[in-house]
TrEMBL record:
Pfam families: Methyltransf_10 (PF05971). One of its GO terms (biological process) is rRNA base methylation. This is U6 small nuclear RNA (adenine-(43)-N(6))-methyltransferase. Belongs to the methyltransferase superfamily. METTL16/RlmF family. Keywords: Methyltransferase, S-adenosyl-L-methionine, Transferase. The keyword tRNA processing does not apply.
């Protein structure tokens, strides 16, 4: 049977997010060294360039760069001890701004105050915030968001709290939470109990809490040996930060499993993903869990690519189209599996057969070589959830109450 597929187009090369301050103005190492003398010893002046750089395989150099960027560009005091994961500020900013896009799209309606019916301030949850606590610090300083940042090691919890307390202007926006303990009501008191190790959100999110999003920079690797394979960088990282049995695929799968239990507690669930092959697996797992929306993006910094994955179980908001707004009415697609010399009649019958197989209502007009297709709500939902959407134009993105369209060969 022929398969409907969208024409392949060359995707534009991914770039830094448009709101990332480093997109148009990369860090000026000379300026930073003149303002922060502690950074100056790490500068290297390549003979082939007038612009200084640093040795990115030197942990001390990358840590000092992160420290001065956070202080100079974000007004954030920051430090981590030796061996802890040292984040790159431009890359982490991309993730924050992408979540901002998800929230501002209002595809999933904002959380509203039950008394005033006004939108509540944005509230996020950072899974595995680490000693660096980078996402809460950036989200609070850049956008005024509040956060809960969770972790499981004493060092990470201690230094995350130190980093928050070093910034009194955003102290009230960030809570650091021990994910090894859950809080359950026992009379009027909260009783602490151990959270099962296979959960990352269930038992850590408190009863009645609601968040606009969760985010995660998961342990990407299955072993510490795999984590040390990139000879071009030295970002540090402990075993707990870098390694998980089964790697990122297993860790993000745990987030997906927990998201099913907490589907009404979050507008968006998100995670960073390090390998594209894992992204495809995780999208399939999310669709099996019957999420209503799945979104992806690509983050690029230098030679490194990461992917952002987001999903929700809440009903998406219907898009209200202005009567004056231009509406896209023509879509192109390809039929695979037909001989190249197939005639228009054969193509038309193949289209009709394809949609008949989905249970759609089809009416062909052989004089104009066209077919009218009507899908019910249930049939449209099935195409969205079973992966058919991947092989069909963007018209399915806006299908909420069934779908009718006209195909001309």
């Amino acid at each position: 049977m022929p398969r409907v597929n969208r024409k392949r187009r060359r995707s534009p090369a991914p770039e830094m997010h448009r709101n990332n301050r480093y997109k148009e103005s990369p860090p000026d190492f000379s300026l930073l060294a003149s303002l922060y003398p502690s950074f100056s010893p790490y500068l290297i002046f390549p003979s082939s360039s007038d612009r200084p750089t640093i040795d990115f395989t030197d942990f001390s150099a990358t840590r000092e760069l992160t420290r001065v960027l956070l202080l100079h560009d974000h007004g954030v005091n920051w430090w981590v001890p030796d061996g802890q994961l040292c984040p790159t500020v431009p890359n982490r900013s991309n993730y924050i701004h992408w979540i901002g896009d998800l929230l501002s799209s209002n595809l999933i309606p904002a959380i509203r105050d039950s008394d005033s019916n006004s939108e509540k301030p944005v509230h996020g949850f950072d899974i595995g915030t680490g000693a660096n606590c980078i996402y809460p610090l950036l989200g609070a300083s850049l956008l005024g968001w509040s956060f809960v940042g969770s972790d499981v090691t004493e060092v990470a919890l201690e230094w995350a709290r130190k980093n928050v307390e070093s910034n009194p202007h955003i102290l009230h926006l960030i809570e650091v939470r021990d994910a090894r303990k859950s809080e359950s009501l026992d009379g009027d008191e909260f009783a602490s109990t151990s959270v099962p190790s296979d959960h990352v959100l269930v038992g850590v999110v408190k009863e009645g809490e609601r968040f606009d999003f969760c985010m995660c920079n998961p342990p990407f690797f299955e072993s510490i040996e795999d984590a040390g394979l990139n000879p071009k960088t030295a970002c540090g990282g402990t075993w707990e930060e870098m390694v998980c049995p089964g790697g990122e695929q297993a860790f993000v799968s745990r987030i997906i499993e927990d998201s099913v239990s907490l589907k009404h507690s979050f507008r968006w669930f998100t995670s960073m993903v390090g390998r594209k092959v894992n992204l495809k697996f995780l999208i399939s797992k999310i669709r099996e869990a019957r999420a209503t929306v799945v979104k992806t993006t690509e983050f690029v910094q230098g030679q490194t690519s990461r992917w952002g994955l987001a999903w929700s179980f809440l009903p998406p908001k219907r898009n209200l189209i202005s009567p004056n707004a231009p509406i896209k009415t023509n879509f192109s697609f390809m039929l695979e599996g037909l001989p190249r010399k197939a005639g228009a009649f054969q193509v038309l019958k193949s289209v009709e057969t394809f949609f008949f197989s989905t249970g759609a209502s089809c009416k062909s007009d052989m004089t104009s070589f066209s077919v009218n297709v009507t899908l019910s709500d249930e049939q449209t939902g099935k195409m969205l959830n079973d992966g058919t959407k991947r092989n069909w134009p963007d018209i399915l993105d806006s299908a909420v109450d069934g779908l009718s369209f006209h195909i001309t060969v």
